[in-house]
Amino acid sequence: MGRARVGKRTMPATVAASALAVACISLAPRTSEAQYGRDRVASRVVELAERDARGATLVGEVESGRLSQGEAAARAYRLSGGTCYWFIAAGDGNVHDIDLLVRARGVTVARDQSSSREAVVPGERPYCPAEDQRVQARVVAFRGGGVYAVGVY
Predict the structure, then answer these.
(1) Which of the residues 8, 10, 18, 127 has an alpha carbon 20 to 30 A from that of 91?
(2) Using an 8 Å Cβ cutoff, are 136 and 75 in contact?
(3) Where are the alpha helices (DSSP H) in the chain?
(4) Does an H or E element contain 12, and which?
(5) pTM
């Protein structure tokens, strides 16, 4: 069996070849696991919209990020008066309960009442402001932490 020199050490050639193969694989370009998780959770938001907000169209993009347990993220949206909206959030398998709260002019106009990794607010009926307004959607990883996504339809 041959020997190979790696840095200042000499080792069996098969061990050196294995180490080189592992290094090449770990450096190979690939989709990051975080991006894969974000894409999966964003896809779940779209599925929920197709189920719960039939016929509604996405406002902007489904946005995603990462939250630790108890951490919150807030996003502002501009809504048009006379149009109805649903706010939808989802978490990955590590988020056991995601909460979603929508506020306009300092008043809560819709909130999630469930204890799951998915939230659709305001629920059966959409939120329909009479006039143009800015709202803030606040997503909280209530139990667990991980990747989340939120979309407005």
Answers:
(1) 127
(2) yes
(3) 13-27, 33-52
(4) strand 9-12
(5) 0.76
